[in-house]
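Subject: sequence -> structure tokens, single chain

Hey, anyone have a minute? Need the predicted structure for the following. Not urgent.
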Amino acid sequence: MPKVVLAGLKSYPIKITSVTSMVESGGSTGQLRQDLNVLPAGDISRHLIALSDAPQWKRSLFYLRFGKDKFSEGHTGHRFGTFFISISEYLSKDFEKTLRFVRKFLEIKKHQALPATLEKTNLLAVLMNGQIIKGEGEIDVPKEHNPKLRIKKIFLKPKVKAYPPVLTAVRKADMIVIGPGDIYSSLIPCFLPDGIKKAVQRSKAKKVFVCNIMTKAGESDNFTVMDFVREIEGYIGCFFDFILYNNKIPDKNRIREYKKAKPLFVDLVKIDSSINLGRNKNKFIGDNLLIKKGSLLHDPNKVARILLKLCKPR
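Reply:
Had a minute. Here:
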């Protein structure tokens, strides 16, 4: 989401509100959360950086890693932005105050990055065999459970209420964009705090899903475009107006190199034959969304241009 949607749309004359799930529990973020008893700051820090108009040195500073602690998710050290937000909340005891301070430092003028909730909670998943997995970190990077077991459902414990400014932003939005991102550990959790699902259902905004390019072990193995759509629509309780997906098949060498660098990403998301038929013909928008070379990532400029064509203010 930060690298694809936020980065692509930021240069246009629109106002962006991004929402972060606030359920991270793994890696550096998880350790800071546990040691300091603060809200997880890793994801929201990336959203803040993406929306920043600050000089490059400030944005680079927030991405800088320091320290020698090794985490099972595959990274070493803490990102400065995550640490800075966490320690600021720890000292001020006020996450909203911390966000205002960081927003000023990163020179975010018209956009905003909001937490889905200000209450502390954990993400849990029920697998098809009935096993319960606790923590976003374990769902995101399976270490203690079989990633081949499909997720049946996810939920928050304890239940929490939505952050009120998020509900206001949803109500005022002309377009709500969901994705791309990890379906169970990143996207769906944004809608689990009480109030957000109902706000989205009542919203008159166009609802658009930007589908992932690759499937992920433990979350979306063998998923098709339609699998992503049906699963997310089931949680938000309403239908998307448009689904944007990549229909460019990269060469085998490029796929092999990406999977080698990112072993959790299993294969290309399959395209259902039915999405170009009947009522789906105008709802599903397939295009070459890939960057020209290298990693199998969305091109933010391509995505932004399509989203802006779809978005017409009420």
